[in-house]
Amino acid sequence: MKILVFNCGSSSIKYKLFDMADESVLASGLVERIGLEGSVWTHQPRGKDKVVTNTDIKNHSIGIQLVLEALTDTKHGVIASMKEIKAVGHRVLHGGEKFSASVLVSPPVMKAVEECIELGPLHNPANIIGINACGELMPGVPQVTVFDTGFHQTMPQYAYLYAIPYEAYEKYSVRRYGFHGTSHRYVSQRVAELLNESISNLRIITCHLGNGASVAAVKYGECIDTSMGLTPLEGLVMGTRSGDMDPAIIPFLMKKENMTAEQMDNYMNKKSGVLGVSGVSSDFRDVETAANNGNERAELALEMFAYRVRKYIGSYAAAMGGVDVIVFTAGLGENSISMREKICNGLEFLGTSIDPVKNNIRGKEQEINVDGAKVKIFVIPTNEELVIARDTKEICSNLA
């Protein structure tokens, strides 16, 4: 069974074609700058050279059509015809409280996704466009939506509600939703497999650390808390996002700097985080280089990030009554040796002890704690597309 997975952003399309017989990737790629000048499309077929094309791509429908043509191209393709693709899986950012699991696309599902646009205004519209484009170009092929918020729907009410008047939740659905759910789900399940242990016996803290970053507490297979909130702004210090801060800062700075609500939103989401503190970059690699060259603000930004992650790990260990495993994933979590060390130093009271030799790895699965440590520490590269493909296969295999 071959399954095509799409992740449509506001101006981009990521894709992978899986052969679910062995879960291998037949082709993958990225279409960037859709609707903008300088559109570029990168296509990587298995066993063949990468193809990079600069062409005007006006909308997502055109981008998806190019992808489909490439998959069947005599030179760069990997399948004989579109008939080989039996289903399509889509990452959808926000399902609100409507969806706690992946579902088959249908008119009621699409209506519900549209109703969640106000909760995910940058991503849900692009996700909808991608689904509709596939419906037009691949009529009759079943499609499945996999929600980034779905994994966190097991949080108890006392964890996801904010201490503001309850009417805000009743009227506007203001609550913590959490994001990166597909990634947290994958690595928590994967670490249980690596430990040859049932996930129902493990208390796992998963750290998805990249330009956007979040931590989740996964107790016996269910998420009970996560650091992102109503939006991805809450929680950790991130590349350009402030993370947790005193809400009174918002009206204070708006008055001082004469900012509108939109300007303040941009200030917190686009100008803050390690970029705002370091003054160097939102890319952690650039900030680490600057810190190594003696830039004190860059070093401060990294210390702030590590401290915030360490605080969340400690609080989630308390929330779960202990912790058995800590997992690092995503760009920074998988590749920054020094950041993993910064975060773990100071957690020894929990029973952690990082091994410097084992920790000297990038982008590969590995246990990095010292032998015999009470709490296991793992690096596990995330694979959100595989989760989407697996869900799609499971749902579509049951269709008549």
TrEMBL record:
Keyword Metal-binding: yes
UniProt KW keywords: ATP-binding, Cytoplasm, Kinase, Magnesium, Metal-binding, Nucleotide-binding, Transferase
Domain of life the protein comes from: Bacteria
Alphabetical list of SUPFAM superfamilies matching this protein: Actin-like ATPase domain
Recorded metabolic or biological pathway in which this protein acts: Metabolic intermediate biosynthesis; acetyl-CoA biosynthesis; acetyl-CoA from acetate: step 1/2
Subcellular location: Cytoplasm
Main subcellular localisation: cytoplasm
Catalytic site positions: D148
Similarity-based family: Belongs to the acetokinase family.
UniProt-recorded name of the protein: Acetate kinase
Gene source species: Methylomusa anaerophila
Gene from which this protein is expressed: ackA
